[in-house]
Specification:
The protein is mostly helical. The protein has two domains: 33 residues, no CATH class; 235 residues, MetI-like (MetI-like fold), CATH 1.10.3720. Helices cover 68% and strands 1% of the residues.
């Protein structure tokens, strides 16, 4: 018997499925890679924002002020190259430049050489209590500038009871007027610079020495190389990038010498010890000549570039 066919109900008929409308893409829709990049930039943005406000803007504004006459309060007046002509014609500027170079050579060159020697000694297996010596050598770098000024003020006191004058008198020499004599001021400030920064360079050299593989020294010993030959053919060539770095930083630091002569001489700005940055400071905040001070900063910027390039050129030749 044939089964009756069931007719589909009208309500059960399948209607064609309409495609869902496409969602509009947000203009701020980013891929995951772009989101990660934006997140990274947001994390590092505080540094660049602060640098732009407190670093980049003052530098650009200083270049602008170099061509203006301004006392810090009134209106600016464009004077062209007059500020540069004034600075280059001022004998005190050339005196400050000479003082900066002399103090830089006396205070910086020995600290680089002695820093290598101290680092080599601290890296040696013969030295015990290395951590104590490392902290002691690095301590002057983190010492308060006020404390440094007090200590060296006592050491280089102009009177006979000053520590250095006591030593000089004990050796049979006359007392030195450290605050006013030409070379007395330079030696006192150079000693302060040397004492404060030799530990900093020592730690940098020590880090470089610890990165040299011991296999090189062991192979050299097996071949019969002396300690001098090991230093000449292994240590110095391997330390060359570190030496270039310290020379570069020391050159910039020596030309920007400010704190040590200021705390030693005070605001007297004596010609025996005035440096370029101290001359710049005097022009800006004592003579209220911000245009002249900015011109001095630009000239110093060019001098630093030239000297740094010369130093890097000669330091690059070490070990060749």
């Amino acid at each position: 018997m044939a089964q009756p066919q069931i007719q589909p109900d009208a309500d059960t008929k399948h209607e064609p499925v309409k495609p869902s409308p496409k969602k509009k893409r947000s203009p701020f829709h980013f891929s995951e890679k772009t989101k990660d990049a934006i997140s990274g930039y947001l994390y590092i943005s505080p540094f660049y924002i602060l640098f732009a406000i407190f670093g980049l803007f003052p530098m650009l504004f200083s270049f602008y002020l170099g061509f203006q006459k301004w006392n810090g309060l009134g209106e600016m007046e464009y004077v062209g190259l007059q500020n540069f002509k004034f600075v280059l014609a001022d004998p005190i500027f050339w005196k400050s430049l000479l003082n900066t170079v002399v103090i830089g050579v006396i205070g910086t060159l020995p600290q680089l050489l002695i820093g290598i020697i101290l680092a080599y000694a601290l890296n040696s297996a013969l030295i015990r209590f290395k951590s104590v010596f490392r902290v002691s050598i690095f301590m002057p770098y983190v010492t308060s500038t006020v404390a440094v000024a007090i200590v060296f003020g006592v050491m280089f006191n102009n009177q006979d009871f000053g520590l250095m004058n006591v030593v000089f008198n004990w050796l049979g020499f006359d007392s030195v007027n450290w605050g006013t004599s030409e070379w007395g001021v330079k030696l006192a400030i150079s000693t302060m610079v040397f004492w404060r920064w030799v530990g900093y360079n020592t730690i940098i050299y020590l880090a470089g020495l610890q990165g040299i593989p011991n296999d090189l020294y062991e192979a050299a010993k097996i071949d019969g190389a002396s300690i001098r030959q090991q230093i000449q053919y292994i240590t110095i060539p391997m330390l060359k990038p570190i030496i270039i770095l310290t020379v570069f930083l020391s050159t910039i630091g020596a030309m920007q010498l400010f704190t040590e002569p200021l705390v030693f001489l005070g605001r007297s700005f004596r010609e025996e010890g005035i440096t370029v940055v101290l001359y710049l400071y005097r022009e800006a905040f004592s003579n209220m000549a911000f245009g002249t001070a900015s011109a001095t900063a630009i000239i110093l910027f060019v001098i630093i570039i030239v000297l740094s390039s010369i130093n890097v050129f000669f330091t690059n030749r070490i070990g060749k």
